[in-house]
Amino acid sequence: MKNLFIRLSLVFALLAAGLTAYAQTTVRGTVKDAAGNGVIGASVFVQGTQNGAIVDMDGSFALPGVKSGDVLVVSCIGYATQNITWTGGPVNVVLAEDAEMLEGTVVTALGIRRDQKALGYAVTEIKSDQLNPNLINPVSALQGKVAGVEINASDGGMFGRNKILIRGASTLGKNNQPIFVVDGIILDNDVVDPSADWDADNLDYGNSLKNLNPDDFESVSILKGAAATALYGSRGLNGAIIITTKSGKGSHGLGVSVTQTIGIDKVTSGPKFQNVFSEGYPAGYGQYFDCESRWDVHRMNVWADGHEGTVPSLLKIYRDIAGFGMSFGARFDAYDQVEWVDGNLVPFQAKENNFVDAFNAGFNTNTNITLSGGNDRSSIYASISEKYSTGTLPNNSFNRFSTLLKASHKLNDAIEVESSVTFTNSEPRNAQPNIGSQFIGEGEFDRTYDAKYFRDKYKGDHGGIASTAHGDKWGSIPGRGVWWSIWENETVQKETVVRPNLKITIKLAPWLKWVTDGSYNYYYTRREQKTPDSSYANAGGGGGYRLENSTQEQTNLNTNFLFDFHVNEDWQLGGFIRGEYFNNYQEATAAWTDGGLVVPNRYFLSNSKNPVKGSGSVSGTKRMLSLAGQFTASFRDLLFLEATARNDWSSALVYADKHGNYSYFYPSFSASWLIHETFDMPKAISFWKLRASIAQVGNDTSPYTINTAYSISNFLHDSESGTNYMSIPGSVYDQNLRPERKTSWELGTDFRVLNNRLGLDATFYKENTRDQIMSVTLPGASGVSSAFINAGNIQNMGFEVALNTTPIETRNFAWDLNFTWTKNWSKIIELSDLVANYIKLQGDADYGNYRVGSVAKVGGTYGILMSDAAPLKDYTYDEEGNITGGSGLPVLYNWQSNYGTTLYRRSGKVEEVGNSVPDFLGSINTGLRFKRFQIRASFDARFGGYVASYPAHYGTAYGYMYTALEGADAAHGGISYTSRWDGISYDDGVIPEGIFPAGTKIPQPSGDPYVVGEGQWGTGETFREVYEKGGVDPCHASSWTYFTHSWSNFTLRDSWFTKLNYIAFRDLSVSWAIPDKWANAVKCQGVTLQANAHNLGYLMNSLPNKENPEAVRGTAAAEFRIRNLQGVTTYFTFTINARF
Amino acid sequence: MKATKIFIALSLFAVVGLTSCRDKFAELNMKPDAVTTAEPSFLATRAMTLFEINDYLFWFYNQSYYYRWTQMGNSGVFSEGSYGMDASVVHRQTGYITMLSYKNDIESFIEANDRQDAKAYAAMCGVLAVYGAIYAIDITGDIQYTEASKYRYGGPLTPKYDHVEDLFDLFVEELDEYIKIFQDDTQVVVAKQDIIYNGDMKKWAKLANTLKLKVAVRLLANNSAKAGQIAQGVLSNSAGYIDSVDDAFIFHKADAGTGGDLAYQTGNSVSMMGASQNVIDFMIDSRDPRVRFFYTKNGFNSKIIQEFITEGLYDNLPPFVQENINLDADGNFESYKLGEPWNRYQGRPVVWEMSDEYEAMKGIYFDYTDRYQLTVGEAKKSYSIFSSLTEEMIRGRVDFTLPTIPGGPTIRDNDDVPWWGMYLGAGETNLYLAELRQLGVISTGSAQNYYERGVTLSVQEWDKVAGKNKIPYYGTTYGYDPLEESIELKDGEIEAMLATDAVKWDGSMEKIYLQQLMNFTMLADEMYVTARRSGYPKVGSDYLPFVKFQKAELAAIPRRFEFSEPAPTDIMHDIRMESLKEQGLTPGKNQSGMGFATTTVLNTERLWQDKNAPQWGSGK
Question: Using H for helix, E for strand and C for coil, what is the string for A1103-1123?
Fold first, then answer.
């Protein structure tokens, strides 16, 4: 209303002016942007007067009282101002987006907007329109957009965490993720780290980032080096992502924007399975019906005795073996029909797409309404948003409702009050289990399982799980338990975030401002878990109910004096001093039923069979006080210097007896020099800046860590009152821990030519993080499992390059093409004396399902991989351990007559086998604009760094994954031969690359063994040599595949331990701004239609079974192990945005 | 003016906020539930709750090797694989280190606070540490003991390895010291904190004294004189030794109300070893009631047998079932020959894969497909023909379903029962004394008396444990099969057992060792040590023969696990390698491997205590 009043007043004023003016004319015209949309709210003024007009809804204006020769100033925030000398006629202006405005300033630490040209360090700022707001996790929207940042999806599912790593890992701790700062409030970006070895699922409900509404983002700044984050002191070690939300500031009048998105999530591709062989053991593993020999596995593997002579020769019973866990059996072309587990006769064939068929399409919708408006003194921004998504498995969904209200008002010329409040409710429900593991022999889904049909056939009419014991129709269908838990179990988490903020700015003098800012972050989570009893009629007394609550409260207060003054024509000085207070408090309580539910399917705590159990604690109490300051100086607007200092006093490193190093100082210095302003440059060079910085940041530790003492528990033992016990802590703590300290320097340049059409931004950095706070594993017999100490030095050094080009730019057509390239070298310079020379980061080098661990080892890169399961290599050594001879080939075990194979020997020694860190990362972003159409596509790539895949490992061992086909028959490279043991002809021969040690007595059908000689290497004879001499048959592929991948005997094989290279087709978007007149016809200022697709697949993927390469377990920095078998889920959305 | 006022107000607020909180840092950084002062009784209780020799990892890894190597159990056909495709993963029994940690922590508290009255708590932990260390030595040989668990109190980070022989001496000294503490009446003990003996120091003293017998028998192969000296010391010590069911080291950790692993032991199901037919035959021949506590009944109750007959599947019944029943004129079940419950225990024959014996019996025992299955209408059920070790004797959360005919009632016992563990009983004690007396290394008492008392007490103790653990059929028949018998110990059974040929005292060492082995059926670690040090079961025995396979030399059967070479980067590497070298043990993997040899280093390179012991199956 008020806005309308202002407008009307202006119109009347202008009219009045027009009536009284002499020889003056009303100028009419339009103001549009490059895409042809009217620039609503742009102003047109006669220079040097108050005479002006505002561009209306259809982009046109009428300005009376203009005389020939007047200069019209056409301006709007975000666009380059144009001055036009009027000589008559209508004025049609196309405003160009202002490079100075958009690219010229960026948000830096503490939310301070600075001239980019003045910064001595690299900052990348991404505008909201480049981010896909429909992704639940805002981290995934940044993928491939910033040089120097590695972002990977995890196996956390729809609302799970993503992994983000800036300039490599700085700390040996698991969490190397940057802090997220939203409007000045630092949000936790904790990691999730379920064991890749022992936890089948990563049931990740995500952290607080999913509660952000990306539609409210104005910009996202990525602060990479220490100089950029030095003002975050003890929390800036891993970089910072600064999110600034929109406000109504700078807008004139009222703007309403409505955005509606609908979309689907679809598993568009799955891993590669083999579809040639059905269920059955590998060669030699069992005795088979209808087989001439125990090695002749490609027959129906029904155990012999029970069926002998009783099974009709054409009808094969598959029922008894489906889903038994190995798939080396009969060929799918061997029989026409078989009797399946449900007793039906079915065509004998693999369901080739059953993995993808197990998933449904998810549906999502996102509605966002914003109102913004303002005038010279006040502004307001309000948004309301509702997002709902269903996942690709039943009952998996996410819901988010969020509002943001921001207002500012200038009380007078000196005082401005700003306030905002964010409210979010979100509901992640039933995180997806690792259903992929059902397809690799660990579950019950074999290659004939029709996932599409059977995914909802798991329940008996009585309400419990279907069972043959109760005569249920689906009692014999595999995987009932899996689908039961997906359809019937319910875990709902409800999160509420409330974030009020109040900021007061007082201008104390023309050169001095005082700003005080207080905010509070309240994060409440409740979780309800309902587990029905699955037995007959749900009456078996099982089931359970669990209720959890947790809250986190953060208080942030800061007060600042900002100054800015011109000393003289050459020098301008600025800066601030600041005091900060931060307090964190968390508590969590939980209660759950024990021993089952009394009344089935009723979920309340007193329905517990045994007394209700519970837990609760206060945690995470931490306080930090800080003083910080910044001093900037610029010389003739071409040389810029900056110094910052921060001192933190943190409670996290104060010991129980009150001693401790709790005061930490972090300085930074940086400089920027505009060469193109200093020297005369060729005209082609439009911009050239050099920048340099050096700084220190730090990282303390979590609350309580250093003060762990005895813990007590109580329990019942033959007495009515409880008995107590007291546990000794497992760790000892250095009594003088200091914060981790990163010292970094960087050099960079920003070089642009041809009117900014070609720009290169390159940075070189070197960072050393010393005094790592690390937990070192101690020898078990010391009585202490770990020691918490300060030690070490990790070095990261690297290049980040961004190349931005605009090959074509015309009024109607523009094409831009941008590249980033990132290369980081890390090196562990030093570790503690307590570790001989390596520290385990993730996984075990000599145990478990992988037998590969990533470690930090002096002299090596961060995340070197070590294993004791590499094949033993045939070498001879001298006393010092130097190689003196040998073939270098893998050493083979003796021939295993039972299984018709040999296998590799494990080296048995923990040794280096690779590296988990990518060699380099890259991305390509491109956009085409043609009139009102715009197409954008982005691709990102990772090259190098090993991953180890559990599903590929066991999926190959058990014959399910594509890699299990190697040599399995002639079509897949198998050698044809006649076995000397049973006289049968086979085509499943594999000749392993490997050597039998001299003296090995290889069993022969005749009885006398073949004794392996010294061969050409002097150490033995290769398999091929012995084979060619007739001393051994080729290995039966199935048993070779099985034994070289089985738990007991596996060695590292290419099938599952692979260098990961991929190129992801990350995003594709097409948008169209419908013509203004069409929009105006429906009373809109503008309407934009947009179609997006995120994660379209991989143009390249080096994993042999084409699993999702970004399914590495959890988000711990050094994790390299894939545990979930996942396909690619593509998110398709269609958005309509209308502005009123 | 206004601006200035607001400025002053907010400045004051900020200054107060920034300065008043620094003193609270220490308080803020202290976890609310962390306790900084030790309480010795609570620490001792914790040690008792953590004390476990036969935990999940033990049952998951070690036990199957022990049963196969000794042939005391059998889950299938014997093959090269029975001797370990990969035995590199072993539960090394390092629990004693935890016990030492608690002992040392209590001692450090006593020293700092001059609380001499709390020494009994440290002594309790000390006794448990010795018990655990003995088991560690059984697997590992030399262990870290004297310097272990001291880093927290300024001791070494990399404790040295102590020699077995020295440790055995030290254990006796330590136990004697603990006995004195338990006999010192200035010690104050809170009864409810002692979840083993409820504060009865006399029983603790007996336990400490009796534990020395475990040391003595382990010395026999190398120093029988010292073994005798130690054992004689046990007999003469005023503390006395464990000689009644009441004294036995049998306890449970927590009541049902506590729940979880503490009350019930591991929540993971354990793959229980199947019974060996030789062992079952021996126990049935000797009418040993313990067969019912250690092993499960098979699925063939009289109702099931009759249903097989009714369905015309008499021929599908296992031959041993057919042999054990009398049929009436119509060919229906009439009665048992060997009655309930004995007829329900059945083991697997000990045979080598692909051998002639195997081929002859595989259709019955190994490759029987649907043979032991009944289908009535749509319902189908399979019945187990074999007995296996009773899982509920090692963990409390095991569900039992009574075998019934298809379509018959579903009778279940799903109750979780707090788990009672047996660690050292009077049966074991007396059987050791019988052995030592019969070998002549001690001079007190009658070997026959010890033997018969040992057998009697062993049966009574295991009956108590089975009853506490409420194993299936204990004290109930479930009212389904009228011929079903419950399995608890009944009057006169022990006397009858002592009178059988297989048990009757005749002074033979074999009978003493076989009874020790029977007593240790559920204590696989001790069973393995007994077989290893005695050479029983013996090849060719009339009672319980050890089967020597044509394809496997006795010297190929491992007597210990592999020792992997520590990573070169392991801070313990040099110390460990030196220790292995001193013991003459070659580290490495795949030493039993898939390539089966006539001898293995795992048999020939022996631990110190095993050095002069007889070969597997060779007797003594």
Answer: CCCCCCCCCECCCCCCCCEEC
